[in-house]
Amino acid sequence: MAALTIFSNAFKLVANNCFKKLTPSTICRTTNSALSLWEPGRATYVTRLGWMPPIPKHQVEVPEIDEEKEKIMKDVTKEINKQVATDKVGRLFAVVHLCGKQFKITESDIIIVQGHWPPTIGDKIKLEKVLLVGGTDFTLIGRPILDRELVSINATVIEKTLSSTKYNFRMKKRKQFRRLHFYRTPHTMLRINTIDINGDIDKRKEMEEIDRIY
Length: 214
Fold this sequence. Notes:
Layout: H1 2-22, E1 25-30, E2 44-49, H2 67-85, E3 93-98, E4 101-106, E5 110-114, E6 124-127, E7 130-134, E8 139-141, E9 151-162, E10 166-172, E11 177-183, E12 186-197
Antiparallel strand pairs: 1-2, 3-4, 3-7, 5-12, 6-9, 7-8, 9-12, 10-11
C-alpha cells in the first residue's frame, strides 16, 4: 500500500513538471478517489492545460438544434406538406420489412415472399412495417418504422406457387454414404397496388388501437 502511494505521487510530480515546461497552466485542487479508500481526506493536485475549456460550476444545457436549423426544418416540412396536398410528389417508393426481409417497392411492383405464409390468393393486405418512403424531392425515414397512419401501402396476393426444384447432396468419405434430397420452397407473389402519404408529415396521427405488427 505504501509503495503504491509513493509510486502514484512520484508519477504525478513528473507529469506536473512536464506540463509546466510545455505551456502555462492552471492548477486545480481535486481529491483522488483511489487514494481516498486508504487515506480519507488526502488531496492531490492535477494540471489542466491552457487550451482546455474551463470546467463549469453548474450544469449547462446544450441545445440540440439552433434557431437557424429549426427554421430550415420548418420550411422543408412546409414544402413537403404542400407537395403532398397538391399530389406533386411524383412516383413514391418505399422500403418495407416483410417476413424477415426488406423490399424496395413502388406501385405495380411484384415481390416474392419465400417460405410458408398464411394469406391466400385474392387476399388484400396492408403492409405496416414501413422503414422508408420517398418521392422526387424528399425522403421520410422511420426510427425504426414510420407511423402506420401516415403511410398506407396496399397489396394483393396474386399467386401461391413452388420454387424450382433444388437438391441437397450429402456424402461421407469412405463410408459408402450418399444421400440426394430434392425439395421446393413455397412462394407467395404480391402485387403492390398503392403507396399513399396521408396528411401532414409533422402531425402525429392518433391510433385507435395499438396491436402487434407482423
